[in-house]
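Final report, Chapter 2: Outcomes

The project's central promise was a pipeline that accepts a single protein chain and returns its three-dimensional structure in a standardized token representation, suitable for archiving and comparison. That pipeline is now operational. To close this chapter, we reproduce one record exactly as it appears in the project archive, with the input sequence first and the structure output second.
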Amino acid sequence: MVLPLIQRAAEDGVTFVLTPRAKAAGLHQISPAAHAPRIPSAPPSPGQQYRFHFDMTKCIGCKCCVVACNEQNGNPAAIQWRRVGEIEGGWYPFTHRLYLSMGCNHCLEPSCLLGCPTEAYTKDPATGIVLHSAQACIGCQYCTWNCSYGVPQYNPERGVVGKCDMCHGRLAEGRAPACVNACPEGAITIETVDIATWKLEYDLSANAPGLPSADDSISTTRLTLPTKLPPDTAKVDSWRARPEHPHWPLVFMLVLTQLSVGAIAAIWMLQTFAASAASSLGAIASLMVGGLALTASTLHLGRPAFAWRALKMWRRSWLSREVLIFALFSGVATLYAATAGGLFGLLTTVLGLAGITCSAKIYLVPARPAWNTHRTIVDFHLTAAILGPLFAAAVGVSGTTWLARAAAVAAACQLVNQAFKFFKMIRSSRQEMNASARLLSSTFKNHVLVRAVLLMAGVIIPLLTPVPPAATAGLLLALAAEVLSRYLFFVSVVPKNMAATYHVAEAA
């Protein structure tokens, strides 16, 4: 009990004269690092902010910082706002392993803040610390996709996201954050940084093997690396690819909203260009599917009662824009179903396509390279082009042959689009893209094959027998195929992240 008290007192600048008896008890073994100042003596001046400094040459991988952080914030063991990863390099027998401790980087352009639909994130103007409000959070988990470092973490028991806040309450009292205080080697400290200067030099001091590029959000964490690193130094887990969470509510929301938009667009196009009688039943059924999809999406939220807050940041967040535009789509689609008016049909179609585009834009984030491609936008729109005509044909809209042909062409384009995406991932130099391709070609290869077979069967059956019962069968098969496709979209993405710990990652 005495050593921790002496250690903490030494960190606060207290000087001790140790007696021979105290030295015999081991008190002389207090690390010299404990005497070094670990927090600035004064708060940041205008144009400055706090930042972490991590010295890799001192870290011994003991994870005292991880334990201290969890105790300070009351987190379960599975949720770690500060993590310790491992990197290694060299060739046997001259190998080299180092440790990398990382919390939130309190970035200058925080991607978690930019994408949040409820303004749960704020960057404190006085200290530069990126703060998260559990009260404002609805648990949409969008920020967990946006951050290249995997800093925000979802707590299913609380229904909200949480992250490192640099123990700003302790800092305000002149005390070091828990992780800084617990480090026995003084590998973690707090500094102030001049923001304008850092923007010019961050690429030299914020990047390290085992970390994503600081370009994504301009991390402020300063890293001290060993003077000589082997040229092949990388994450110890760089070879590992593990499936991500499937997010089933989002799978069904995306597929069904795309079906709804595609069906109304097909009905309106038949009415306008093929002189077909408009089907109020078809438009109403399509609208009902869309309403079901939007309702299902709330099941993804940790706090669904506060789903309305997602409209708040429509000027900045694609998630807010998606919610807003699909709400407008539902209103105008109701008018179209009631009046069968061509103008309302056009407006509904435009809003629906805009809504699908917003849905796709949510996933175009640098932190998830397999999603961050124009092929995601094409993929989502082609799903609408496949399922919409088949749904319209299944509910008895005239023009079944035309609808079946349109769905078949869209299905062929979809398979080509996804094949090109797969080959691009295989050839990419990015580890995350390669890992996504490996998952699709190994763990999920049967899913990929079944999906292709279901989709082809779904569009061929209505072509061979252009009657509503065949269209219904085709719709069910194609719907299953697109649900499976969206499932693969979520589980096969490999996010950017910091290096993991080899043993823990292996056990997981």
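Archive annotation: The mean pLDDT is 88.
This record, like all others produced under the grant, will remain available to the consortium after the project formally closes.
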